[in-house]
Design a protein that fits this description.
Length: 362
């Protein structure tokens, strides 16, 4: 007890006495003892639990792909034919361990982070193709697996009923969200908060689908960047137009064109935006609407167009009607299409059910 104050010595004596009593207690061995799960100092007053919710707000949260790669993007190695989206030696998706894409479209690793070539603004895309390779996956059968929930869990899945965001406090007021408009589906449910938001007509051809009222939504923003080793399928997809190496006009492509070394093409591909693929072993690769994934699985294409049928879904054992399938896709497009949209939706649904917590974000 050397060096302790008188008050401290007095305080210690009852404690020592308590230990002595405990040591000689007549309790039988193994008797039940009530041990508090709380520290002595906090038993008198319990604190309300706290939750700090950390959210990644980096540029990658804007991506529309979520693959089992180093950063979830799809990677194409111009200089190595065995590492072009699919790594043939590892039998899985290829990725660049360095994580940095090449600044050139004619060599090195090319990064594909999006599915829709839809401009570059805060409510559309954070990363424009011109700011370095963050391209959109060409909408052609060769890359069907990259528009299938079987390979990209973030992509539209007909087995899910997509609902709008739950009400949320934004800009000081409680905001409610409705089903997305199928002919004017917003690229982001909230932004822009003033002016005209970017929208997509999911019933129209890709080249006519986006609202081009803003100057940055020029024709060049509706094209896919195709690089060495990719095949522009002019013989099987009609109406394709392409521009070589970023100069000159767009010319029709009516035969299959393999992009050669030293070249790249900006390619306009007529296609239905509301399209997805499902694994179907009965679908042969040569049949219309069928494709083969890199791992050998057969995929069947579903275009959400009037007159087509769709697979079974929750509450729809015979498949949704065209109108309901299109509405479900539109809700996915506006509320779940990107990583940050999906996270916002999931967080809202979870936190809306929590009571008795104090929360904060960081």
């Amino acid at each position: 007890m050397t060096g302790k104050s008188t008050a401290t010595r007095i305080a210690w004596r009852p404690a020592l006495a308590g230990l002595a009593l405990a040591a000689f207690s007549p309790l039988a061995p193994g008797a039940a003892t009530d041990i508090s799960s709380l520290p002595i100092s906090s038993q008198a007053q319990s604190a309300t639990p706290n939750v700090i919710f950390g959210i990644d707000d980096s540029g990658s949260m804007d991506f529309e792909l979520l693959l089992p790669t180093n950063d979830g993007a799809a990677w194409w190695n111009i200089d190595n034919a065995s590492q072009r989206f699919w790594d043939t030696s590892a039998n899985t998706f290829a990725f660049n361990t360095a994580g940095t894409p090449s600044s050139s479209s004619t060599s090195g690793w090319q990064k594909y982070s999006y599915l829709f070539p839809n401009g570059s603004t805060t409510d559309a895309r954070q990363l424009a193709d011109g700011n370095g390779p963050h391209y959109a996956i060409p909408a052609i059968p060769a890359y069907a697996c990259l528009r299938s929930a079987a390979y990209i869990t973030l992509y539209y899945n007909p087995a899910v009923n997509y609902t709008p965001w739950v009400p949320a406090y934004l800009s000081g007021a409680l905001r409610s969200f409705n089903d997305a408009a199928t002919t004017a589906a917003r690229s982001h449910p909230w932004f822009l908060t003033s002016g005209s938001p970017k929208t997509a007509d999911l019933t129209a051809d890709l080249r006519a689908s986006f609202d081009a009222t803003n100057s940055d939504w020029t024709a060049s923003n509706f094209t896919f960047r195709m690089v060495r080793g990719m095949t522009i399928p002019g013989s099987t997809v009609s109406g394709i137009k392409a521009r070589r190496n970023g100069s000159g006009g767009f010319n029709s492509v009516t035969t299959d064109l393999v992009v050669a070394a030293g070249d790249y093409y900006d390619v306009a591909i007529p296609c239905c935006l509301a399209t997805y693929y499902m694994v179907d072993s009965t679908c042969t690769g040569a049949a219309p609407g069928c494709a083969t994934a890199p791992d050998g699985k057969k995929l069947r294409r579903y275009e959400i167009k009037s007159g087509n049928t769709f697979p079974a879904a929750p509450g729809f054992p015979g498949g949704r009607t065209y109108a309901k399938e299109l509405q479900n896709f539109a809700n996915w497009f506006s509320y779940y299409r990107k990583r940050d949209l999906m996270l916002s939706s999931a967080a809202g649904q979870v936190f809306a059910q929590i009571r008795g917590l104090r929360g904060g974000t960081t």
